[in-house]
Amino acid sequence: MQYRNIIRILGLLVALLSVTMLPPAIVSLIYRDGGGVPFLMAFMWCLLIGLALWYPNRFKKDDLRAREGFLIVVLFWTVLASFSAIPLMLLETPNLTTTDAFFESFSGLTTTGATILTQIDGLPHAVLFYRQQLQWLGGMGIIVLAVAVLPMLGIGGMQLYRAETPGPVKDSKMTPRIADTAKHLWYIYLSLTIACALAYWLAGMSVFDAICHSFATIAIGGFSTHDASMGYFNSPVINLICVVFLIIAGINFALHYAAVQNKSIRNYFADPEFKFFIALQVILTAICFGVLMSHGTYQDADVALDQALFQSVSISTTAGFATTSFADWPTLLPLLLIFASFIGGCAGSTGGGMKVVRVVLLYLQGIRELNKLVHPKAVFTIKLGRKALPDRVVEAVWGFFSAYAAVFVICMLLLLASGMDDISAFTAVAACMNNLGPGLGEVAANFASISDFSKWVLIVAMLFGRLEIFTLLVLFTPAFWRN
Asked: CA–CA distance from 150 to each of 147, 154, 322 (Å)?
């Protein structure tokens, strides 16, 4: 294991992270909210520590292997999320404990959107901006950004990209060079963010709110600058804009890239994962609308449709924005939406969950097993669209599902052991592993009331969800550390 090379890379990344502390300080200066000093102090700390890690190891530039790639990805998220907690610990308003600062930081960077903060409207603008910025940076995976930048510093990126990129097929690249791939992804990501911010602003948001909410929308994060989340604006137009951009962000970015390159949207409709994803949103919205109207939750059909569409897309894409407390809806709907978050967004999107393509493959494999019972000697292949998939891919998906279920059960048992009730424990783990944010019961509004032990368990759950189980789980195998 190339430990000195890994320390050199982490030092560079921490030094780069320090730059992200400056925009909140500038925001504080603009709004004169008095919250900028902690961010300047955090900038100095991160820069000095990053240089201290990098300088003694600056000449260790060996080629990375797959093992180093996985270790760097895990260390990247844990180390950078930990350093991102520094300004939150230094703040006077809000005055956070170390555990709360780490929880908020990990939740932001992993785009989970679970928060321990209350009275968000009264927080300094610098703090509000920093939370949204964390989600934006984490949305596409800062690793991809690092892959675009670090080759200039003598660091190869293929191993990092393979370890970070979600979905069952890790080696597919849109362009021959990995740095070009990362740059194209970020061009698309940045363009969508700008378009979303402009749409929010034209719909009536302030410039500050429009920028902040565009960060969280494209990252499918869920943090807001208001306690009432999107419900603060009370605008069907803003709700619709949010829904449209959440769906766009929940689609595989490789399809966006193909659409831009080919100047055609045909690729979307030829993709089976996209079609299933859109169908899921339509079905969920129709169910929510029907149940809300039949129970008389809303008297006006337009209001019911607006709320059903927004909550369905927000929860199923794992954004977690809210216009109302969906936990107060008829019991079927909160549980239905929580289960929908297990599916999440498409592979290669900023969404969480198990990813649509994996769920589709699990379904197809189930159908194949049923057919084999009827025709034991027949040979059945699993096709995604017109492409027959090798059994190795299907086996990997089943392996992912079993590992996901095992980690989920362990985390939930730990929360139950800490004294949390069953509904709160189940939905808290679902909200964090699926990078969703809100849960039910004790964690419906925020996570402030749960114990410190529970928060650390959920931080681990966020990491497992963000790193798609295997990337983190592989570090616990003896074979990984054996030369």
From this structure: 5, 7, 38
Closest by CA position to 393, among listed 404, 403, 381, 405: 381
Number of domains within the chain: 1
Tell me whether residue 150 is in a domain: yes
The answer to whether the CB of 111 falls within 8 A of the CB of 138 is: yes
Tokens found for residue 47: 């820069």
Q: Say whether pLDDT at 205 is over 90.
A: yes
Beta bridge partners of 384: 387
C-alpha to C-alpha distance for 278 and 284, rounded to whole angstroms: 10
**Looking at the domain assignment, is residue 220 inside a domain?**
no
Q: By the 8 A CB rule, do 71 and 164 touch?
A: no
Is 309 annotated to bind a ligand? Reply is no
Q: Is 19 exposed, middle or buried (0-12, 13-18, 19+ CB in 10 A)?
A: exposed
319 is in an annotated binding site: yes
pLDDT tens for 270-324 read: 888 899 999 999 999 999 999 999 999 998 999 999 999 999 999 999 999 999 9
Q: Is residue 465 part of a domain?
A: no
Q: Is 156 a member of any domain? A: yes
Q: Which two tokens stand for residue 262?
A: 């080919």
The answer to whether the predicted template modeling score (pTM) of the entire model surpasses 0.85 is yes
CB hemisphere CA count around 469 (13 angstroms): 22
The reply to whether 248 sits in an annotated binding site is no
| 220 assigned binding-site residue | yes
364 labeled part of a ligand binding site:
no
Which stretches of 203-271 are DSSP H helices?
A: 207-218, 236-249, 253-262, 266-270
The answer to whether 112 is annotated as binding is yes
In the structure encoding, which two tokens stand for residue 205, read together?
């948001």
Rounded CA separation 223/266 (Å): 33
Residue 154 is part of which domain span? 3-165+175-186
DSSP readout, 138-195? HHS-HHHHHHHHGGGGT---HHHHHHHS-SS--S--SSSSHHHHHHHHHHHHHHHHHH
